[in-house]
Amino acid sequence: MTRHGQSWFDDDAGPLVRPYAVTRGRTVGAGHDLDMLTLVVTADAAPRLRRSEPEYAAIVRLCHAPQSVAEVSALLKLPLAVTKILVGDLIAEGHLTFRAPVHTDAGPGDLTILRAVLAGIRKL
């Protein structure tokens, strides 16, 4: 279909879906305040995934090994805000467990943290 003479899809990339469509318009997650450094992993006794959206299944597959929310976002090429909502849904349903990052007294100019962030970006 077209709107104002423009196609809703890109012939080379396929259909373009706005990020909020994946979350059905939600901008707030299922009650978990997830940091981009929060580690998530598939729960040992996770129930069967009943969601049909492919993003949920992809997150569960990725999280068989612990991943940070930022890594999941980057690997799935989804905005961080969208990823936080989807991961929060999976945590609430018992599919994922999480561990919040340890907060230190280090400031924003701490070289150790900056080096760790750079190393993480290079791994992507």
Could you please describe the fold and organization of this structure?
With 124 residues, the protein is an alpha+beta fold. 38% of the residues lie in helices and 15% in strands. It has 5 helices and 7 strands. The strands form 3 sheets. A 3-stranded antiparallel β-sheet has the order 6-5-7. Strands 1-2 form a two-stranded antiparallel ribbon. Strand 3 (9-10) and strand 4 (14-15) form a beta hairpin. Helix 3 (69-76) crosses helix 4. The chain is globular. The N and C termini lie far apart (36 Å).
Topology:
Elements: E1 2-3, E2 6-7, E3 9-10, E4 14-15, H1 19-22, E5 39-42, H2 54-62, E6 67-68, H3 69-76, H4 80-92, E7 96-99, H5 111-123
Antiparallel strand pairs: 1-2, 3-4, 5-6, 5-7
Helix pairs in contact: 3-4
The Rg value, from CA coordinates, equals 17 Å
What do the pLDDT scores average to? 78
Taken as a percent bin, the fraction of beta residues is 5-15%
Helix content estimate: 25-40%
Number of strands: 7
> From N to C, what is the helix and strand string?
EEEEHEHEHHEH
The biggest sheet, with number of strands, parallel, antiparallel or mixed sense and barrel status, is:
3 strands, antiparallel
Strand order across the biggest sheet? 6-5-7
Low-pLDDT stretches are none
Secondary structure category: alpha+beta
So what's the overall shape?
globular
Number of helices: 5
Straight-line N-to-C gap: 36 Å
In brief:
The protein is α+β, with helices and mostly antiparallel strands.
Give me some keywords for this one:
alpha+beta, globular, 38% helix, 124 residues
